[in-house]
Write a structure and sequence with these properties.
This protein has helices spanning about 1-25, 70-80, 140; strands at about 30-35, 40, 45-55, 55-60, 65-70, 85-90, 90-95, 100-105, 110-115, 120, 150, 160. It is an alpha+beta fold.
């Protein structure tokens, strides 16, 4: 009798298990914004790039753009966990859409995303490019380091090295 109850309980748990797995699975995060009196939702993984346009930012998808009243710095902070990197003071790109990087003689880089759009990576933000790949083979040859006494923080801002006596 006890064995039969245990088998029935096990069978009920096995039936409920797929439902519990579905509930436990985290849903993909979404960006909510207001446009033309409606609230729209998009997945961060659908956004190719974000570009500042005055007091607004443009969320660029492959086929359409959305204009939001927000600063690029606020958007950069919110999107960094989803694979966005800053490549210019007014541009963020989704790392999963980057297809090519080309060095320019000026020390800047050209970055092409899926769909063919090209952006300039300024010298201030070039260190952020290293986060585009899980690993690099021959990394030192990709992005030569500057021998200046300044370094670049994660957001691309310059900071002075501190020297201890």
């Amino acid at each position: 009798m006890v064995e039969r109850d245990a088998r029935e309980q096990t069978a009920r748990l096995m039936e409920a298990f797929p439902l519990l797995q579905g509930l436990a699975r985290p849903k993909e995060p979404r960006i909510a914004f207001k446009e033309k009196g409606k609230i729209l939702f998009i997945n961060p993984s659908d956004v190719v790039a974000v570009q500042a346009e005055g007091n607004y930012v443009s969320l660029r998808r492959e086929s359409i753009s959305h204009l939001l009243r927000e600063s690029i710095s606020v958007v950069a902070e919110k999107l960094e966990p989803y694979g966005f990197i800053r490549i210019h003071r007014s541009v963020l790109v989704n790392a999963s859409f980057v297809e090519e990087i080309r060095p320019y003689p000026t020390g800047e880089y050209g970055l092409r995303v899926k769909g063919g759009k090209e952006y300039t990576v300024t010298r201030t933000y070039k260190r952020n490019l290293q986060s585009l790949a899980a690993f690099w083979i021959g990394t030192s040859t990709f992005f030569p380091t500057d021998s200046s006494d300044a370094s670049v923080d994660r957001d691309g801002g310059r900071r002075r090295k501190s020297y201890k006596a």
